[in-house]
Amino acid sequence: MNGAVPTTIIVAGLLLAGYALLMTALDKRMGGVLLAGLGVLEILLLVLVGLVVAKLADGSRPGSPATLIGYLVAMPFVPVAAGFWGAVERSRWGPAVIAVAGLVAAVLMVRLHEIWPVIRV
Amino acid sequence: MSEPTTSPEPAVPPETTVPPETTGPPETTAQPETTAQPETTAQPESTVPTGTAASPEAGDAQPESTRTGPGRVLVAIYALFALSASARAAVQIATKFSNAPVAYLLSAFAAVVYIIATVTLTNGSPTARRIAVVSCSIEFAGVLAVGTWSMADPASFPDATVWSGYGSGYGFVPLVLPVFGLLWLRYWARRSKRSRAQGPAAATRPPDQGRLPE
Q1: Which residues of B touch A25 (CB under 8 A)?
Q2: Which residues of A touch B174 (CB under 8 A)?
């Protein structure tokens, strides 16, 4: 499994976080660009979940399968939950929530690699 | 996103609907900020914590609750830690408890503290804020104690907890988070004290300024 998708997720997450923090600094509310960015992040995460599940279906196993499965289940909820929680906030702090989600997505890729080194970044 | 039709305020646009428990009780009909009543000067601009009063676009309203404004970010991070610490503790205790019982029990304790902080900061009532102060204080003391313990006696921690090394495995967020939590709660304690001094109408529920008139 090559590292293209996790690397893309890290880059996308950091870009999204940077843009969102800029919006917070400029005192802007949630906007379409942030929601679109979350959508892209969500698709990338779902693709990655599919790739990892395919790897598991091949028969190989990480050291702690329960932890990996927990990550696979929880990961796709990060952009969804952040999108909801950010959208109900009508101030600059909505984008700040999106920034957290972007950073979390990037950190999750590093964690996934630690849990299962097969997942390269 | 739920249907907005149950909201008591008909003027609320659909995207601003909040979970049902957030709609203030009807008896706390705070004065709308448009009616300038000189005796209740409840909106001094100095109370805006982040100095956003200059922009009429977004940030000029005071947060309505501990869960709004900067509290959104706090609640999001607390929820993340509540989820990850609980899941991690559950996996550790279920699969390999005998390896590092101290570390895993501390993980579970940290998970409980994070859950309490998430729930109380989301709720935001005066009682919830008091509980949140206690749990954030315990959290801060726990990070310092476990961090020091894990440095002084690494043998007790063959596997890491959230608070090992002062939260170094989590970018020191566990060390910083309770500080911001307590600062946020102190802002709310002062604000509610000020409101009580100015009159009972705005004591616990500040004016509902988050919903800007269109």
Answers
A1: none
A2: none
ipTM: 0.93
- Reading chain A (121 residues) residue by residue, the pLDDT tens digits are 678 999 999 999 999 999 999 999 999 999 999 999 999 999 999 999 999 999 999 988 998 899 999 999 999 999 999 999 999 998 999 999 999 999 999 999 999 999 999 888 7
- Going from N- to C-terminal start, the domains of chain A cover 4-115
Domain count for chain B, please give it: 1
Predicted TM-score (pTM) of the model is 0.76
- For chains A and B, count residue pairs whose Cβ atoms are closer than 8 Å: 74
In chain B, which residues have their Cβ closer than 8 Å to the Cβ of A88?
Answer: 16-18
Q: Within 10 Å of residue B119's Cβ, how many Cβ atoms?
A: 17
